[in-house]
Amino acid sequence: MTFSEAQRIVDDWIKELGGGYWPPLSMLAALVEEVGELAREINAVEGPKRKKRGEGSVDIGLELADIIFAVICIANYYGLDLEDAFQRVIEKYTERDFDRWRLKE
Protein backbone atom coordinates (compact mmCIF):
# COMPACT_ATOMS: atom_id res chain seq x y z
CA MET A 1 0.00 0.00 0.00
CA THR A 2 1.32 3.45 -0.88
CA PHE A 3 1.09 6.50 1.35
CA SER A 4 -1.47 7.94 -1.07
CA GLU A 5 -3.64 4.83 -0.78
CA ALA A 6 -3.34 4.86 3.00
CA GLN A 7 -4.27 8.56 3.10
CA ARG A 8 -7.34 7.89 0.95
CA ILE A 9 -8.42 4.92 3.09
CA VAL A 10 -8.07 6.93 6.30
CA ASP A 11 -9.89 9.91 4.78
CA ASP A 12 -12.77 7.70 3.62
CA TRP A 13 -12.98 6.06 7.06
CA ILE A 14 -12.90 9.40 8.89
CA LYS A 15 -15.61 10.85 6.66
CA GLU A 16 -17.87 7.77 6.84
CA LEU A 17 -17.36 6.48 10.38
CA GLY A 18 -15.13 8.83 12.32
CA GLY A 19 -17.33 11.90 12.38
CA GLY A 20 -14.67 14.15 10.86
CA TYR A 21 -11.14 15.05 11.79
CA TRP A 22 -10.41 16.20 15.32
CA PRO A 23 -8.89 19.62 15.96
CA PRO A 24 -5.12 19.62 15.32
CA LEU A 25 -4.05 19.73 18.97
CA SER A 26 -6.36 16.81 19.77
CA MET A 27 -4.83 14.82 16.93
CA LEU A 28 -1.36 15.69 18.21
CA ALA A 29 -2.34 14.52 21.69
CA ALA A 30 -3.62 11.25 20.20
CA LEU A 31 -0.31 10.81 18.35
CA VAL A 32 1.67 11.38 21.55
CA GLU A 33 -0.57 8.89 23.35
CA GLU A 34 0.10 6.29 20.65
CA VAL A 35 3.86 6.90 20.90
CA GLY A 36 3.55 6.30 24.64
CA GLU A 37 1.79 3.01 23.97
CA LEU A 38 4.61 2.02 21.60
CA ALA A 39 7.13 2.87 24.30
CA ARG A 40 5.25 0.65 26.73
CA GLU A 41 5.27 -2.25 24.25
CA ILE A 42 9.00 -1.88 23.56
CA ASN A 43 9.68 -1.60 27.28
CA ALA A 44 7.76 -4.85 27.78
CA VAL A 45 10.10 -6.57 25.31
CA GLU A 46 13.42 -4.82 25.92
CA GLY A 47 13.18 -3.17 29.31
CA PRO A 48 12.70 -4.20 32.89
CA LYS A 49 8.95 -3.48 32.98
CA ARG A 50 7.19 -6.61 31.72
CA LYS A 51 3.47 -6.77 31.11
CA LYS A 52 1.27 -7.94 33.95
CA ARG A 53 -0.76 -11.10 33.69
CA GLY A 54 -3.92 -10.46 31.71
CA GLU A 55 -2.63 -7.33 29.93
CA GLY A 56 -2.45 -9.06 26.56
CA SER A 57 0.44 -9.87 24.30
CA VAL A 58 3.01 -7.42 23.02
CA ASP A 59 2.13 -6.08 19.56
CA ILE A 60 4.70 -3.53 18.46
CA GLY A 61 3.44 -3.66 14.87
CA LEU A 62 -0.07 -2.67 15.90
CA GLU A 63 1.25 0.25 17.93
CA LEU A 64 3.35 1.42 14.97
CA ALA A 65 0.26 1.19 12.77
CA ASP A 66 -1.68 3.30 15.31
CA ILE A 67 1.06 5.93 15.01
CA ILE A 68 0.90 5.82 11.22
CA PHE A 69 -2.89 6.27 11.39
CA ALA A 70 -2.50 9.29 13.67
CA VAL A 71 0.18 10.81 11.40
CA ILE A 72 -2.03 10.27 8.35
CA CYS A 73 -4.93 12.02 10.10
CA ILE A 74 -2.74 15.05 10.73
CA ALA A 75 -1.41 15.02 7.16
CA ASN A 76 -4.91 14.75 5.72
CA TYR A 77 -6.18 17.58 7.91
CA TYR A 78 -3.49 19.86 6.50
CA GLY A 79 -3.82 18.52 2.94
CA LEU A 80 -0.26 17.16 2.87
CA ASP A 81 1.05 14.55 0.45
CA LEU A 82 2.98 12.05 2.57
CA GLU A 83 4.57 10.39 -0.46
CA ASP A 84 6.13 13.69 -1.44
CA ALA A 85 7.09 14.52 2.15
CA PHE A 86 8.66 11.08 2.69
CA GLN A 87 10.64 11.36 -0.54
CA ARG A 88 11.92 14.76 0.58
CA VAL A 89 12.94 13.44 4.00
CA ILE A 90 14.86 10.55 2.42
CA GLU A 91 16.66 13.06 0.21
CA LYS A 92 17.38 15.21 3.28
CA TYR A 93 18.86 12.28 5.21
CA THR A 94 20.81 11.09 2.18
CA GLU A 95 22.39 14.50 1.68
CA ARG A 96 22.94 15.31 5.34
CA ASP A 97 24.14 11.89 6.48
CA PHE A 98 25.78 10.57 3.32
CA ASP A 99 28.99 9.62 5.14
CA ARG A 100 27.47 8.77 8.50
CA TRP A 101 25.99 5.34 7.80
CA ARG A 102 28.63 3.59 5.71
CA LEU A 103 29.12 -0.10 6.30
CA LYS A 104 32.23 -0.88 8.27
CA GLU A 105 34.91 -2.60 6.26
TrEMBL record:
It comes from the Archaea. Residues 24-99 form the NTP pyrophosphohydrolase MazG-like domain. It holds the Pfam family MazG. One of its GO terms (molecular function) is hydrolase activity. PANTHER family: NUCLEOTIDE PYROPHOSPHOHYDROLASE. This is Nucleotide pyrophosphohydrolase. It comes from Thermoproteota archaeon.
